[in-house]
Design brief:
Elements (H helix, E strand, L loop, with lengths): L1 H16 L1 H6 L1 H11 L8 H6 L4 H13 L3 H7 L1 H12 L4 H16 L10 H15 L15 H10 L12 H13 L4 H14 L9 H9 L3 H12 L11 H11 L1
Helix pairs in contact: 1-5, 3-5, 3-7, 7-8, 7-9, 9-10, 10-12, 11-12, 12-14, 13-14, 14-15
Length: about 260
């Protein structure tokens, strides 16, 4: 923790004294900084309880803000480097680093609400495959639920890409749902299971619901509004295509009505 904090503080001082030097060397540290903004190092119990960053994350966040443009702008500019760093972090032997990778992937996936996507179709596929692999590897680790919010927007990004540009390496939506369903079934807590099932209900906007409908119904009975909306939409509006996909716009509109 001390070395990561010292590195962040030192780079932040350089960015403050010589911002042009920091900006010129941004490609060298941007991937590390993107991850380190989620570093849990030197976080007090109160900060952890309130969801506030610790000293290490604050130092790297300050560097990010002083040396780079807006968060969204910086991530768009260095999306390739950030995606590569996030994937590498998912393979780390420590849960804390894997959680940082998961949070960064979710942030990258949410960037593309408007305008040209920051992530290339191949990057979307690689990130989705990395998330699915991380979900299927080993026991649930602390913070692994940070992976759940990444899959729905990645699924949507893939569906929105031109058919010719879509990557063959993208896991099918059925595979994503299966990974989330398996995670819910072996969940260590009810909240963890609910988060997995909520993510699954969002992913199923673009796929068949039948295979996982019993789990969604179970979540709806336990108060999951998203799961309830998804099951209602499945009955009323999801039109399957011959390839086993779904009409995304119709499914999403039906879920909004159901909610």
């Amino acid at each position: 923790d001390a070395s990561r904090l010292a590195s962040g503080v030192a780079l932040c001082q350089i960015a403050s004294v010589a911002p042009s030097v920091a900006r010129a060397n941004a490609p060298v540290f941007v991937a590390t900084a993107a991850l380190a903004r989620y570093d849990p190092g030197q976080q007090t119990e109160e900060e952890a309880r309130e969801g506030k960053p610790g000293q290490v994350a604050r130092a790297w966040t300050q560097l990010w803000e002083e040396a780079l443009p807006s968060t969204a702008g910086a991530l768009r500019l260095y999306a390739d480097e950030a995606a590569a760093a996030a994937l590498a972090a998912l393979k780390s032997p420590t849960w804390a680093m894997r959680r940082q990778g998961a949070l960064l992937i979710a942030e990258l996936a949410r960037l593309d609400g408007s305008g040209a996507p920051a992530l290339k179709p191949t990057a979307v596929a690689d990130l989705a495959a990395g998330v699915v692999e991380a979900l299927g590897t080993g026991r649930p680790w602390e913070g692994r639920d940070a992976l759940f919010p990444a899959l729905p927007p990645l699924c949507i990004l893939h569906a929105q890409a031109d058919a010719a540009a879509q990557s063959a390496g993208m896991p099918s939506r059925a595979v994503m749902c299966a990974a989330l369903a398996a995670e819910a079934q072996r969940a260590p807590t009810g909240a963890y299971a609910a988060a997995a099932l909520d993510a699954m209900s969002e992913v199923t906007d673009a796929t068949a619901l039948e295979a996982h409908l019993p789990l969604l119904l179970r979540a709806a009975k336990h108060g999951s509004a998203k799961a309830a909306a998804a099951t209602d939409a499945a009955d009323r509006a999801v039109e399957l295509t011959p390839s086993g996909g779904a009409d995304i716009a119709s499914a999403r509109a039906a879920r909004r009505d159901a909610a």
